[in-house]
Amino acid sequence: MKIKKQGIIMMVFAVVTTFPSAALALLSDTVEGKWSLNGQFKTQATVRTEDEPPNTPIPYEKGNMTSQRNLLMLEWKHDLGERFFGIKTEYNIKGRAYYDGAWDYGPKQMSDDDYRQRYVLNNRALVDDREEIDKHKWKAEIFNAYVDMSKGSFFTRIGRQVLSWGEMSTIRILDGCNPMDTSSLAVDMQERLIPLWMVRANLAFDSVGPFESVSLGGYYVPGKIDNTYEETMIDGSPIIPPIGRDTEAELALPFSMSTIKQFIKQTDSEIDDDRFGVKLGVMYKGMDLNLAYYRMYSERPVPQLQEQCIQPMVVNPLNINIHNPMETVLGDQYLVVEKTRDTVDVFGGSLNKNIDAINTVLRAEAAYFMDVPMQSPGTLMDVVGALEPHVTITNLNQSLNELLGIFPLGPIATQTFPYVVGEIPKYDLIKYGIGLDKWINIPFLSKNDFLFTFEYVGTKIQDYQKKAIINPWYEPWDKDEDGNWDPTYVSEYNNTFILVSRGNYLNGNLNPQCVVMYEVEPKALVLIPSVSYAYNKFNFNLSYFMTEAKDAEDLGMLDKYDELSFSVTYSF
Asked: What is the per-residue pLDDT across 436-448, written as a single tens digit (0 to 9) for each?
């Protein structure tokens, strides 16, 4: 199945791969400074430094180039002054074009269609998704386009834009207004949050009662105009989590997960609900406090069997092909599995304060997520129950369930299915986090201070029941050694610790950095050291990404993953 949401790992990787750009301009208004055209070109190559686990959908080997992404950004800014009723007006247009050449001239796992057809993913036929690759490997578009208007204490921005709330710099809690692009680890930080067509406004006042300032802001995204969620990940992408290989032995079995997957057609759910939010902020004795509410689309889609799409079937038991009974029953139709999303309401708050006595910034936030769709475990019998009302059996007075009993089902009879049959269960979540930013001088290492950022983010599922929720991928190993890739069950609690250290040398041009993340339950470690160097209009970056896990949940979903990335950025 296609996995689309790797938000936590992607966000942390974005922290590593971003660095400041020089304030340059390709063209500008040298007289009044009212307008400018800026640009940036970035090229990045990423290679595997270890072989992937043997059970990944398409195995990548040590030395394989998994991405060669080229990005061009052009940004036009224009200050129109106060031409209209004394309202200060500016507009901004940013264009984006990118191309990942690894799909054309990378390893055979990505570029050679004949080789790729050796692997079965989600189609009855062998994999041939070059049309999908051609659609997603490159894009040219208007990325941002908005108008800013302000007068006195009022500000509004109308157009395609990004809105960031919350205080955490890595794992998102309140910062869910925009969806996140998780299609590749190579996506630049500038592109990580996907802009939406929205109207946002803010009203701010100084010295209100006991508060130094009070502000009220909000936004609205009309669903009929923009129902964007995260970017699509191509089947066979190097960052698809290990979900179990479709082996020839499994495909030869009449009933196996690999065989059944060939009779499944996946679709995306249609959702066009409006998204909106409101935030109240106050400054009190140097502490910035915020209360917020917003409506978002659920981030992780839940695969759900669409029973209404099942067409009537007539089955003659005397004509059943014992080597392929699924095709005998279903005929030419597929089982339609929809990757379903729904709206989620989020209530939360945040704070930040600069503690002068210890030269430290304290940040914290928490949120309550209501009615989050989650995936419950299903079985083959659930599918049979959904098919039963649509099947007419001739010559024998038997139900489909009874007829199925004459076949040796083997392990599939008890194996958990990676999609929901029936109603999708919903759970409430609590997310909370705390962060500290501290400049520390380390003698003998540098004359300049190092910036250390520590963050802790936790999640708790309300009304949790053990083994009631599964992730949309199988475990990357066969723990019980029964020959099946079993599902990974979601934990009631998830606790992640993050440490980011940054330094600078050579007048700030050389910047080493290291990100360490540790997920307590289940255990997983992510390590991302990097170094960047700025020279005139160029930035050079070298980074290493490693994850090591003992179970497959959020940080551990890639199991064991090692890659090295080098990029060059030119700003103009």
From this structure: 999 999 988 888 9
As a whole number of angstroms, the distance between CA 191 and CA 169 comes to 16
Contact between 352 and 361 under an 8 Å Cβ cutoff? The reply is yes
Q: Where are the beta strands (DSSP E) in 408-492?
A: 426-440, 450-461, 470-474, 487-489
Supply 176's token pair: 């869910």
**Residue 368: what residue type?**
Y
Q: How far is C-alpha 325 from the geometric centre of its chain's CA atoms?
A: 38
What is the Cα–Cα distance from 366 to 351, expressed in whole angstroms?
A: 10
pLDDT attached to residue 3 = 40
**Torsional class of 129: left (φ above 0), alpha (ψ -120 to 50), beta (otherwise):** alpha
As a whole number of angstroms, the distance between CA 468 and CA 466 comes to 5
DSSP state letters, 513-569: EEEEEEETTTTEEEEEEEEEEEETTEEEEEEEEEEEESS-SSGGGG-SEEEEEEEEE
8 A C-beta contact, residue 217 and residue 288:
no
| Residue (of 113, 108, 114) closest to 131 by Cα position | 113
Residue 16 pLDDT grade (very low, low, confident, very high; cuts 50, 70, 90) = very low
- What type of residue sits at position 253? L
Minimum mean pLDDT range among 103-112, 456-465, 553-562: 553-562
Look at the alpha carbons of 98, 13, 542, 2 in this order and tell me if their dihedral is positive or negative: negative
Q: What are phi and psi of 43, to 5 degrees?
A: -125, 135
pLDDT digits (tens, 9 = 90+) for 103-139: 999 999 899 888 877 765 544 455 567 888 998 999 9
Burial of 319 (0-12, 13-18, 19+ CB in 10 A): exposed
What's the half-sphere exposure (Cβ side, CA atoms, 13 Å) at 438?
14
Amino acid found at 531: V
**Residue 85 Ramachandran class (φ > 0 left, ψ -120 to 50 alpha, else beta):** left
Dist CA 323 CA 384 (whole Å):
18
329-374 residue pLDDT tens: 888 899 999 999 999 999 999 999 999 888 899 999 999 999 999 9
pLDDT of residue 400 exceeding 90, the answer is no
Mean pLDDT of 201-225: 96
Q: Which secondary structure element, helix H or strand E, spans residue 400, and what is its range?
A: helix 400-404
Block residue for tokens 């970017």:
231
pLDDT, residue 161, reads: 97
C-alpha–C-alpha distance, residues 335 and 30, integer Å: 63
DSSP one-letter code for 127: P
* Domain 7-571 falls under CATH 2.40.160.10: yes
- pLDDT (0 to 100) of residue 402: 77
pTM of the model: 0.90
Domain coordinates in residue numbering, the chain:
7-571
pLDDT at position 532 is 97
What are the phi and psi torsion angles at 309 (to 5°)?
Answer: -90, -5
Residue 412, helix vs strand vs coil: helix
